[in-house]
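FYI - complex with zinc ion, inputs then prediction.
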Amino acid sequence: MAASAKGRFVPVLAVVAALVAALLYRAPFSKSLGGEGCSLLPHDHFWIASDRVVTLGRVGPAAVEVKGGLINAIAVGDYRNFVLRRPLLDYGDAVIMPGLIDVHAHLDEPGRAEWEGFSTGTRAAAAGGITTLVDMPLNSFPSTVSEETLKLKLEAAQDKLYVDVGFWGGLVPENAFNPSALESLLNAGVLGLKSFMCPSGIDDFPMTNSTHIEEGLVTLAKYQRPLLIHAERIPDVEDDDGLDGELDPRSYATYLKSRPPAWEESAIKDLQRAMKDTGAGGRSEGAHIHIVHLSDAKTSLELMKDAKRSGASVTVETCPHYLAFSAEEVPDGDTRFKCAPPIRDGMNRENLWKALLDGHIDMLSSDHSPADPDLKLMEEGNFLKAWGGISSLQFVLPVTWSYGKKYGITLNQLATWWSENPAKLAGQKNKGAILPGYHADIVVWKPEAQFELDDSHSVYHKHRNISAYLGKELSGKVLSTFVRGNLVFAEDKHAKAACGVTILAK
Ligand SMILES: NC(=O)NC(NC(N)=O)C(=O)[O-]
Ligand SMILES: [Zn+2]
Ligand SMILES: [Zn+2]
């Protein structure tokens, strides 16, 4: 969809002041690199342009003016004819898109920096076109469940962020019935809360039941912030379907059977009252329930559709690994693929894509959750004992694009799933789109560029060997990433200084 008329401007910007200026300045891209500090560019007022800018629900030629960290103006049309007063970075036919917002990443500082950390995690994010991420409250030690533990997070993050980072706090039994404890955590700036309906594997992050959740939501309603839920629950009567007898712990089928779709179903059924409470006139109207990493595209998904239809304030995410892989393809003993809920069969994957395309799944997130490689027990290959979690932060854009191409996904859909809807969930009103007044959080990438994730490929997150994507042939290469106007990543280099900021809710 190219812009209709050459030089036609976005109405809100009827007059783009820069256009009347006389000087056309085009900085050759590589020469514009080399600035020190927060940005690889030496200036903070410039234009970027390409033939494929994703803005205003369209994709076409446009130039975007970046000034003081914000998007100042958008000039739609054949920018090659524009006369601009400031430097222009001409990206040709590359795609200019809102930076990705990953609402589900585990950066494990303080306490477990050997699993993942703020510096490595946010460098990986920048290299992957992610400009904002929201950190999960567990896997660091201590877990982020109080005002004090959030402070420790903030201290640990200082001077280490290459992209902007917000924080979810934990809803756990200890604070769920204690509104003043929850309020102090919310007042300290967490963007919302997160809870688990099954054991999380982390000692200081115990599971909550639906009563804890219903109570926690009442406090969240006052703040109009969401509750994110890991929705797997061990059903009251467990089907012992195939789980007795001799089980080979190296077989993926064994792991798959150990966490059936019935667990997701049981959790979501148990949440029905809590979800209803979020609707108009409900006890926790103003709060919102977001189901993280949905894997079951059957009954669990149908239950979410029902909840939406009945007016509950709910959304749901899935992750690239559920869209890229299927149980049939997971090699026995390859614990890099172990995550919870598990990657299910190929038919389920098809149905997840369908739900995403139909808008029943609202957004995508990485659930980047690496661990110390020793805990993955890669030699032993024991799926039942290995630590779960997929390591993927840097690859989510090429993965979504590469595996989505056969379903005909569009750049606009990518922006909806990875930027616009996540920004809404995280309450970020000036992020998630390329629009005047918004933060200049931008990824520039080449969807057609193919590469193999082999040993020669720079991987910035910790422990490249535990990522299930290694060895895959992908398409979609990130050229440049801007965070609030700072060029934080370009040509395989990061800016020298870590100038991402912590995002705290007010
Ligand atoms: N402790 C974790 O990191 N858990 C995570 N692990 C996964 N998904 O396998 C998660 O989000 O549930
Ligand atoms: Zn989870
Ligand atoms: Zn997670």
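Residues 411-425 form the longest helix (15 residues). The chain is about 25% helix and 20% strand.
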